Amino acid sequence: MGAAAAALVGAVALSGCGVTGTDIRPGVAAKVGDDSITVQEVDETASGVCAYFKDDETDIPLAFYRSQILQVLVREAATRQVVSDVGAKLAAGYDDAAKQVVENYADLPAAQREAFVKIDTAAAYIHYGELAAALAVGESTGETAVSPQEASEQGATLIQEWLLGEDVELNPMFGVVLGEDGALNGGDTSLSVAVSDEAVQAILPDDEDTEYVSKVAPLTETLTDQQVC
User: Fold this and answer.
1) Which of 43, 50, 151, 179 is least enclosed, having the fewest CB within 10 Å?
2) Is 195 helix (H, G, I), strand (E, B) or coil?
3) What DSSP string describes 88-152?
């Protein structure tokens, strides 16, 4: 997928005048509060994922992976800032999960390993961060008697509310939009998915999903080899 990666970099290069209609600077995929996610970061991760799946029978538009990966990274950036804002501390389980992620992909080629480690680590942080944020807020209000599932849901709501209330700019080239409820989705140019502790699964399409296949099959026929995984 080296050629595809090179073509992608050329195709998505931004001019020096910024992105029309937004405050996004050239080369930035998303501005999330105090953090920025670069186009290069998203594209390198998508290229690694694409390379891993290059021998699969199902053709997937590279843009699909780029969109889903950006959603994961935006959610992670928001979670990190909420965790900091509420003074939460992640459980030790996060460190264990992060170490396990590295071990899981140790045998992959470097670019693929880096891509999946980034995605899985982000997913783990989102999961543990949501829990930690909810518990910290609960302790401050005296509402601590909740189940892990309830805490996770409360944490997810905190993140979505933060996204709605903060300065969040999304580069339209990725087709990702922020809904009125604070949920991220792929808008009109990709498939909508929830971004949560199952974030890594969200970027892996299901061959048995007939709705997905019916949408993607006609699209892939119009794309070049460099635009398809």
Assistant:
1) 179
2) coil
3) ----HHHHHHHHHHHHHTTTS-HHHHHHHHHHHHHHHHHHHHHHHHHHHHHHHHT-----HHHHH
Domains of the chain, earliest start first: 2-227 (1.10.4030)
C-alpha span between 213 and 218 (Å, rounded): 9
Query: Which tokens in the block code for residue 169?
Result: 């700019």
Q: Which long-range contacts (CB under 8 A, 24 or more apart) does 20-26 make?
A: 21/172, 22/169, 22/170, 22/171, 22/172, 23/169, 24/169, 24/170, 24/171
Query: Of residues 61 and 108, which shows the higher confidence score?
Result: 108
Element (H, E) at 164: helix 148-165
pLDDT higher than threshold 90 for residue 210: no
User: DSSP string of 174-189?
Assistant: G--EE-TTS-EE-TTT
Q: pTM of whole model > 0.70?
A: yes
3-state secondary structure of 8: helix
Residues 153-199 have pLDDT tens digits of 999 999 999 999 998 999 998 989 999 999 998 754 333 333 333 33
Tokens standing for 197? 């502790």
Q: Mind listing the pLDDT tens digit for each residue in 216-227?
A: 556 666 666 667
Give CA–CA dist 114/116, Å, rounded.
6
CB-based contact 220:90 (threshold 8 Å): no
Cβ burial, residue 9 (10 Å; 0-12/13-18/19+):
middle
